[in-house]
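In response to reviewer comment 3 from the previous cycle, which asked for concrete evidence that the modeling workflow produces usable outputs, we include below a single protein chain processed end to end. The sequence was submitted unchanged, and the resulting structure tokens are shown without manual editing.
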Amino acid sequence: MRPQMNLVIDIGNTASKFYLFDNGQLVRHEQEFGHELRLLGKIGEKAEAAIISSVVALPAEAEVRLQTLPCPAIRFNSATAIPVSNLYRTPETLGSDRLAAAVGAWMQAPGKPLLIIDAGSCITFDFVSADGAYLGGNIAPGLHARFRAIDDYFPRLPLVEPEGATPELGIDTETAIRSGVIEGMRHEIEGYIDHFREKNPSLLVFLTGGDLNHFANTIKSPIFADQILVPRGLNHILDYNIRR
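The workflow returned the following structure tokens.
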């Protein structure tokens, strides 16, 4: 099969992201806030196939724009064929980003047990067995949610931004909160890695998500940091369905 230009459309709660893959390589990436898909005409004009993953109901104008794509498009959902087996008890409730990230990791390291950590709005920990079965995962509040929770629940404590000094022990209220949140998450991540590696000595760990940079260089265990793990997985899912 000749190389193909694939368009991946990943629509989140606040932004829509567009990725153009040429023979599996990312060649273009665009993002817009909102869900109107105004950039679709510009970035989709050379696409030969497309996949759409959305966590929101799209407005009518976006649906109209999708109809103008010059190529066939599939909507990624729990019924979409994927190259791993999904053993989640309620697959229709599983976040598409979690499953796409699992596929993105598996296609890079098939035959290995995988722990996929996505440090986004929530932090998720998902596991794929060495025989290619997605077994499930856990969800916890993400970095920014933890800072906001401190501000919401404790009126005398300020809302702190994640950028700034993180001493081992806070030297004032701001650094105490920042170090407490960031170092707490780091220990949480390392705890998960140690737990799963003890049970699976050949475990490989993939780290992705918007807050990846706060942890990628401080995690003691070996990891693969991949900022585009989710769109990479969606591209593999699209290719898998084209070949079927």
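The longest strand covers residues 25-33. We consider this sufficient to address the reviewer's concern, and the full set will be provided in the supplementary archive.
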